[in-house]
Amino acid sequence: MLCPPSSYSNGQCVDPLTIVQYNLYYTNPNLTPFLDYLEKNEIDLVVLQETAPWHGDRFMELIDKYPYQFGGTPGLGYPSGQMIISKQPLNLKAQNTPAGHYMISGVWQSSKHRPVSLYTAHPPSPRSEQLWHERNALIGSLERLSDYSPYADTLIIGDFNLSANTRRFTDAYQDYHTAPLQSWPREIKGLPIPSFSRIAIDHLWIRNTESPSLFICKREVLSQFSGSDHSAVVTYLSEKH
User: Residue 143 — φ and ψ, nearest 5°?
Assistant: First the structure.
Protein backbone atom coordinates (compact mmCIF):
# COMPACT_ATOMS: atom_id res chain seq x y z
CA MET A 1 0.00 0.00 0.00
CA LEU A 2 1.77 3.13 -1.26
CA CYS A 3 -0.80 5.72 -0.22
CA PRO A 4 -3.02 6.25 2.83
CA PRO A 5 -6.54 4.86 2.53
CA SER A 6 -8.61 7.88 3.49
CA SER A 7 -6.66 10.94 4.64
CA TYR A 8 -3.43 12.91 4.23
CA SER A 9 -2.17 15.81 6.32
CA ASN A 10 0.85 18.04 5.88
CA GLY A 11 0.87 20.85 8.38
CA GLN A 12 -1.77 23.29 9.51
CA CYS A 13 -4.37 24.50 7.02
CA VAL A 14 -4.58 28.30 7.34
CA ASP A 15 -7.49 29.92 5.51
CA PRO A 16 -7.47 27.12 2.91
CA LEU A 17 -8.97 26.90 -0.53
CA THR A 18 -11.22 23.83 -0.63
CA ILE A 19 -11.63 21.64 -3.71
CA VAL A 20 -13.96 18.67 -4.10
CA GLN A 21 -13.66 16.20 -6.97
CA TYR A 22 -16.15 13.43 -7.64
CA ASN A 23 -16.85 10.91 -10.38
CA LEU A 24 -20.63 10.93 -10.09
CA TYR A 25 -21.26 7.80 -12.21
CA TYR A 26 -23.60 8.44 -15.14
CA THR A 27 -26.53 6.49 -13.68
CA ASN A 28 -26.14 7.75 -10.11
CA PRO A 29 -29.72 8.29 -8.89
CA ASN A 30 -28.94 9.88 -5.54
CA LEU A 31 -27.27 13.29 -5.78
CA THR A 32 -29.26 14.94 -2.97
CA PRO A 33 -26.79 14.15 -0.12
CA PHE A 34 -23.88 15.47 -2.21
CA LEU A 35 -25.79 18.62 -3.15
CA ASP A 36 -26.66 19.15 0.52
CA TYR A 37 -22.96 18.80 1.41
CA LEU A 38 -21.98 21.46 -1.14
CA GLU A 39 -24.75 23.75 0.10
CA LYS A 40 -23.76 23.45 3.77
CA ASN A 41 -19.96 23.57 3.42
CA GLU A 42 -17.61 26.26 2.15
CA ILE A 43 -16.26 24.63 -1.02
CA ASP A 44 -14.42 26.86 -3.48
CA LEU A 45 -14.15 24.58 -6.52
CA VAL A 46 -15.98 21.38 -7.55
CA VAL A 47 -14.63 19.18 -10.38
CA LEU A 48 -17.01 16.48 -11.62
CA GLN A 49 -16.70 13.52 -13.97
CA GLU A 50 -19.33 11.23 -15.52
CA THR A 51 -21.88 14.03 -15.35
CA ALA A 52 -25.16 13.19 -17.07
CA PRO A 53 -27.34 16.04 -18.37
CA TRP A 54 -29.90 15.51 -15.63
CA HIS A 55 -27.06 15.70 -13.06
CA GLY A 56 -26.13 19.08 -14.53
CA ASP A 57 -29.72 20.23 -14.12
CA ARG A 58 -29.52 19.38 -10.42
CA PHE A 59 -26.31 21.37 -9.97
CA MET A 60 -28.11 24.41 -11.33
CA GLU A 61 -29.93 24.37 -7.99
CA LEU A 62 -26.67 25.64 -6.47
CA ILE A 63 -26.21 28.54 -8.89
CA ASP A 64 -26.56 31.18 -6.14
CA LYS A 65 -23.68 29.71 -4.14
CA TYR A 66 -21.62 28.52 -7.13
CA PRO A 67 -22.36 31.14 -9.79
CA TYR A 68 -19.51 30.12 -12.10
CA GLN A 69 -20.01 26.92 -14.09
CA PHE A 70 -18.33 25.23 -17.03
CA GLY A 71 -20.26 22.47 -18.76
CA GLY A 72 -23.91 21.96 -19.54
CA THR A 73 -24.44 24.89 -21.89
CA PRO A 74 -25.75 24.47 -25.46
CA GLY A 75 -22.94 23.73 -27.90
CA LEU A 76 -20.60 22.66 -25.12
CA GLY A 77 -22.44 19.95 -23.22
CA TYR A 78 -20.26 18.01 -20.80
CA PRO A 79 -16.82 17.51 -22.43
CA SER A 80 -15.84 13.89 -21.68
CA GLY A 81 -18.54 13.97 -18.98
CA GLN A 82 -16.90 16.83 -17.11
CA MET A 83 -18.49 19.75 -15.29
CA ILE A 84 -16.85 22.37 -13.06
CA ILE A 85 -18.59 24.74 -10.64
CA SER A 86 -16.96 27.43 -8.54
CA LYS A 87 -17.54 30.24 -6.07
CA GLN A 88 -14.89 32.27 -7.90
CA PRO A 89 -14.65 33.20 -11.60
CA LEU A 90 -13.62 30.62 -14.19
CA ASN A 91 -12.24 31.22 -17.67
CA LEU A 92 -11.98 27.77 -19.25
CA LYS A 93 -12.03 26.08 -22.63
CA ALA A 94 -12.29 22.48 -23.84
CA GLN A 95 -9.77 21.03 -26.28
CA ASN A 96 -10.35 17.84 -28.24
CA THR A 97 -7.67 15.17 -28.68
CA PRO A 98 -7.29 13.06 -31.85
CA ALA A 99 -8.99 10.15 -30.05
CA GLY A 100 -12.01 12.30 -29.16
CA HIS A 101 -11.26 12.95 -25.49
CA TYR A 102 -11.45 16.43 -23.99
CA MET A 103 -9.01 18.37 -21.85
CA ILE A 104 -10.26 21.44 -20.01
CA SER A 105 -7.80 24.27 -19.41
CA GLY A 106 -7.81 27.88 -18.32
CA VAL A 107 -7.87 30.09 -15.25
CA TRP A 108 -9.52 29.74 -11.87
CA GLN A 109 -9.59 33.13 -10.14
CA SER A 110 -9.25 31.67 -6.66
CA SER A 111 -8.87 35.14 -5.14
CA LYS A 112 -8.71 38.74 -6.36
CA HIS A 113 -4.93 38.65 -6.46
CA ARG A 114 -4.18 34.99 -7.15
CA PRO A 115 -5.21 33.38 -10.44
CA VAL A 116 -4.48 29.66 -10.74
CA SER A 117 -3.97 27.69 -13.94
CA LEU A 118 -6.48 24.84 -13.96
CA TYR A 119 -6.34 21.68 -16.10
CA THR A 120 -8.79 18.79 -15.87
CA ALA A 121 -9.35 15.56 -17.75
CA HIS A 122 -11.00 12.16 -17.50
CA PRO A 123 -8.81 9.71 -19.44
CA PRO A 124 -10.58 6.49 -20.44
CA SER A 125 -10.43 3.34 -18.36
CA PRO A 126 -7.81 1.06 -19.98
CA ARG A 127 -10.20 -1.84 -20.64
CA SER A 128 -8.52 -2.63 -23.96
CA GLU A 129 -5.12 -2.09 -25.52
CA GLN A 130 -6.51 0.78 -27.61
CA LEU A 131 -7.99 2.52 -24.55
CA TRP A 132 -4.73 1.93 -22.67
CA HIS A 133 -2.88 3.85 -25.38
CA GLU A 134 -5.54 6.58 -25.43
CA ARG A 135 -5.35 7.02 -21.66
CA ASN A 136 -1.55 7.31 -21.73
CA ALA A 137 -1.64 9.71 -24.68
CA LEU A 138 -4.15 11.97 -22.92
CA ILE A 139 -2.06 12.04 -19.74
CA GLY A 140 0.96 13.07 -21.83
CA SER A 141 -1.02 15.66 -23.81
CA LEU A 142 -2.29 17.28 -20.62
CA GLU A 143 1.23 17.41 -19.21
CA ARG A 144 2.51 19.17 -22.34
CA LEU A 145 -0.44 21.57 -22.25
CA SER A 146 0.20 22.45 -18.61
CA ASP A 147 3.83 23.26 -19.45
CA TYR A 148 2.44 26.51 -20.90
CA SER A 149 0.82 27.53 -17.62
CA PRO A 150 1.19 31.31 -17.27
CA TYR A 151 0.71 31.46 -13.50
CA ALA A 152 2.78 30.57 -10.45
CA ASP A 153 0.29 27.92 -9.27
CA THR A 154 -0.92 25.15 -11.57
CA LEU A 155 -3.54 22.52 -10.72
CA ILE A 156 -4.28 19.26 -12.55
CA ILE A 157 -7.43 17.47 -11.36
CA GLY A 158 -9.52 14.48 -12.41
CA ASP A 159 -10.29 10.80 -12.46
CA PHE A 160 -7.23 9.62 -14.36
CA ASN A 161 -7.92 5.86 -14.33
CA LEU A 162 -4.28 5.49 -13.32
CA SER A 163 -3.37 3.74 -10.09
CA ALA A 164 -0.88 5.50 -7.84
CA ASN A 165 0.78 2.10 -7.37
CA THR A 166 2.23 2.13 -10.90
CA ARG A 167 5.46 3.30 -12.50
CA ARG A 168 3.50 5.39 -15.00
CA PHE A 169 1.98 7.39 -12.13
CA THR A 170 5.42 7.96 -10.61
CA ASP A 171 6.75 9.17 -13.96
CA ALA A 172 3.83 11.52 -14.67
CA TYR A 173 3.88 15.20 -13.66
CA GLN A 174 7.22 14.91 -11.87
CA ASP A 175 7.42 18.64 -11.16
CA TYR A 176 4.16 18.47 -9.24
CA HIS A 177 3.19 17.55 -5.69
CA THR A 178 0.34 15.11 -5.13
CA ALA A 179 -1.23 13.10 -2.31
CA PRO A 180 -3.03 10.01 -3.66
CA LEU A 181 -5.87 8.46 -1.66
CA GLN A 182 -7.71 5.18 -2.20
CA SER A 183 -11.03 6.20 -3.75
CA TRP A 184 -12.03 3.38 -6.12
CA PRO A 185 -13.88 1.03 -6.29
CA ARG A 186 -16.38 1.62 -3.50
CA GLU A 187 -18.56 -1.14 -4.91
CA ILE A 188 -18.85 -3.51 -7.86
CA LYS A 189 -22.36 -4.29 -9.09
CA GLY A 190 -23.77 -3.10 -5.77
CA LEU A 191 -21.39 -5.17 -3.63
CA PRO A 192 -19.29 -3.04 -1.23
CA ILE A 193 -15.51 -3.26 -1.56
CA PRO A 194 -13.40 -2.95 1.65
CA SER A 195 -11.23 0.16 1.77
CA PHE A 196 -7.96 -1.80 1.88
CA SER A 197 -8.78 -3.24 -1.56
CA ARG A 198 -9.27 0.16 -3.22
CA ILE A 199 -6.77 2.10 -5.29
CA ALA A 200 -6.05 5.78 -5.87
CA ILE A 201 -7.15 7.02 -9.30
CA ASP A 202 -8.90 10.34 -8.46
CA HIS A 203 -5.91 12.64 -8.45
CA LEU A 204 -4.91 16.24 -7.80
CA TRP A 205 -1.46 17.58 -8.66
CA ILE A 206 -0.13 21.06 -7.86
CA ARG A 207 2.98 22.87 -9.11
CA ASN A 208 4.44 26.17 -7.89
CA THR A 209 7.10 28.32 -9.52
CA GLU A 210 7.42 31.14 -7.02
CA SER A 211 6.75 32.11 -3.39
CA PRO A 212 4.32 32.46 -1.72
CA SER A 213 2.87 29.24 -3.04
CA LEU A 214 -0.11 26.98 -2.51
CA PHE A 215 0.43 23.47 -1.15
CA ILE A 216 -1.71 20.47 -0.24
CA CYS A 217 -2.18 20.77 3.50
CA LYS A 218 -4.91 18.15 3.80
CA ARG A 219 -6.78 15.64 1.65
CA GLU A 220 -9.65 13.34 2.66
CA VAL A 221 -11.93 10.74 1.11
CA LEU A 222 -15.62 11.55 1.58
CA SER A 223 -17.23 8.17 2.02
CA GLN A 224 -20.74 9.28 3.00
CA PHE A 225 -22.17 9.49 -0.54
CA SER A 226 -23.64 6.51 -2.39
CA GLY A 227 -24.62 5.87 -5.98
CA SER A 228 -21.13 5.93 -7.51
CA ASP A 229 -18.32 3.40 -7.59
CA HIS A 230 -15.98 6.29 -6.65
CA SER A 231 -15.67 8.19 -3.41
CA ALA A 232 -15.59 11.95 -3.53
CA VAL A 233 -12.30 13.52 -2.41
CA VAL A 234 -11.80 16.91 -0.73
CA THR A 235 -8.46 18.73 -0.91
CA TYR A 236 -7.42 21.74 1.17
CA LEU A 237 -4.81 24.09 -0.28
CA SER A 238 -3.02 26.52 2.00
CA GLU A 239 -0.35 29.14 1.38
CA LYS A 240 3.25 28.98 2.49
CA HIS A 241 5.93 31.66 2.27
Answer: -65, -45
